[in-house]
Amino acid sequence: MSANSQSTVPVAIEVKDVDFHYGKSRALKDINLDIHRNEITAFIGPSGCGKSTLLRCFNRMNDLIPDARVVKGEIRIDGVEIHSPEVDGVELRRRIGMVFQKSNPFPRSIFENVAYGLRIQGEKRKAVITEKVEKALRGAALWNEVKDRLHESAFGLSGGQQQRLCIARTMAVEPAIILMDEPCSALDPIATASVEELILDLRSDYTIVIVTHNMQQATRVSDRTAFFYMGEVAEYDFTSKLFSNPSNPKTEQYITGRFG
Ligand SMILES: Nc1ncnc2c1ncn2[C@@H]1O[C@H](COP(=O)(O)OP(=O)(O)OP(=O)(O)O)[C@@H](O)[C@H]1O
Fold this sequence. Notes:
The protein is α/β, with parallel strands linked by helices.
C-alpha cells in the first residue's frame, strides 16, 4: 500500500505481499507498504495486531525466534531483498539500528556504551572512536549534558537521558534506518518531549519507523501512519490525512478511542 501513489519520495523499505507466521499462527497477512526515505513512519493499532512483528522483520530480528518466518512475499531495502543469500543478517542490523521500549544501556560508562558498536566493528583507532562517540552524542542531543561525565556509569543518567544514550549508541555505527519500538513508553512527558524533538531532528539524516501506542505522538512526529488491525495494514496514509479524515471506519473507531 502506498500512502501516496503520486509521491516522488524515494522508497527505503518496500514490503510486498508479506505473510509472517509464528509456528502455525499467521501474525501478518498480505502486507504491502512502502516506507519512504528521510521520513518518519508511525505504526499504530491495538495490541497484538502485528506492529512489532513487521518492525522486527525489517532487520531480520525475528530470525532469532525459532519457527518464526516470512512465509510469503518480499521485503526490499534499497532495492535488495533482505532474505536473499547475499544479505548478511549482522551487516543488515548494522545498517538498520533499533531502539527498544525500555532503554537498555550496558553496565559500562557513557562513553563505552556509544563506543561499543564501533569496537565490535573492529575500529581500534582511539581518535576515530573519540570523534564518533562525540558526534553521536551531539546527534542525540546529549553531549552538553554528559560531556563532563563520559567515564561515569550510564546507569547514573535519567530515564530520558538513557534512552537518548541508546539512540546515540544506535547512531554511532551510522545506520541508514532506525527502527523504534515504543521508545517513549517508559518516559515521563518531559523526557518524552526531548526524545520526540530528537526524533524530528534525525529525520534529515535517517529513515525512521516508530511503533507507538500514543496517538498524539504519532501526530506530533510522523509524516505517514500505518494503522494495523488483526495482522493487516488497514490504512496507510499521510498522518495529517489519516487522523483528520480516515478512509477506513476501523481507523476512525481506533483513533477516537472506541477500542484499543
Ligand atoms: N515470539 C512470539 N512467538 C509467538 N507469537 C508471537 C511472538 N511475538 C508476537 N507473537 C504474536 O504475534 C501477534 C502480533 O504480535 P506483535 O507483538 O507484533 O503485535 P503488536 O501490534 O506489536 O502488539 P503490542 O502493541 O502489544 O506490542 C500476536 O498475536 C502475538 O501474540
